[in-house]
Amino acid sequence: MQRLLFKTITLICLSQGFSGNVTCNAQRLHKHEIQVSYGPLARTQVIEDALTTYIGAFVGDPPPRMDFSNFYAATYRYQVHRRLAISVTSGFTSGSTYKIDYSHTKSFYRHSNKTTAFETKFSYVDGRMISLYAITGLGLHITRVKNQVINEAKTYPLLTCQLTPFGIRIGRQFGGFAEIGYGYKGIVNFGISARF
Hints:
The protein is of the alpha+beta class and 196 residues long. Helix content is 16%, strand content 60%. It has helices spanning 2-19, 46-59; strands spanning 32-42, 65-66, 69-79, 84-100, 106-126, 130-147, 152-170, 174-183, 188-195. It has an eight-stranded antiparallel beta barrel. A hairpin with a 3-residue loop joins strand 7 and strand 8 (174-183). The longest helix has 18 residues, at 2-19. The two termini are 45 Å apart.
């Protein structure tokens, strides 16, 4: 009776494996992924501007007008586990900030950032056509800020991070994705990707 039960369970498991209803690491075809993305609501200086606004409020500075930037990026991702992937992202951001200080001096800044970051991706749902996931990232900005009024520029490095609690990807080998979060990718980030 035990042999019959063992053979039956083995047969069911094998048939499920061949039919594709059970996914395991050995059956995964896609270990690599390349993404191209766009984030229209990126604001890489948001913490710096928040501190400036908070400190400036004590000395009577009006708050700066903050404009969002556009973030363009490419990402390479490697699947290390069914639910966990590691990746590296490289991107570019540009934007502007307009400020008036306590002495009513007007300043107009243009800023650009070259960003490199390492990320981890955790999948809540990892289906054949739909994936739901979260991303955390830590990286470095090489920031260039130019004061357009006095024609003065500074370049310096800044640490940056990304926290994306919700992302969705639709498609098997080729697909599209959208993400909502905070950090160097912006509030929203979307694009296309290919798995191989």
